Automatic annotation (TrEMBL):
Residue stretches spanning the membrane: 28-53, 59-82, 122-142
Keyword Transmembrane helix appears in the UniProt entry: yes
Organism classification: Eukaryota, Metazoa, Ecdysozoa, Arthropoda, Hexapoda
UniProt-recorded name of the protein: MARVEL domain-containing protein
MARVEL domain span: 27-148
Organism (species): Cryptolaemus montrouzieri
Amino acid sequence: MKFDNPDWNAHESVYLLHHEHQHRSGPLWSYLGLLKILEEIVNIYLIVSLVVVGLDAQAYYLFLMAMISFLVTAVFLVISLLETLIDLNPAYHWIEFSCGVASGISLGVASTVVLVALPRGYVITSMVGFLNTIIYFVDALNRYRIAVAPRRRLFWTRPVQVVYDDE
């Protein structure tokens, strides 16, 4: 594809490959769907580990950010399962990109606060928060690539000769 077409666009191929794979195997088992599932698993781990270790005053911020990220990611996961808003609204990927960046930044700041201010019991939880930050930024980068890609072409247009039965 790259060598046959001089107008080859990497962003367009990322968008098309994502959607072709998504329609063949379902949105949940695509690359971005698996990233969403991984984000949810890590968010659940963060929430459970913070509850088990105990919530200190500084840990409430990480707990709150993990809960908000969990809920926002769950909403986007349900939307991607429905597949209606994704195809109808071209701004969907921009919205998901901005939410991914916001979740990544807030989880990164909260994990830094927990790592600096709290004792050793919270170190592993803080490192898992940093891991979740990386996962959110990878997802946001992929959403950005899809958002800046030209829209998918549904039909190839070529001149068609129309023949009427009356002639």
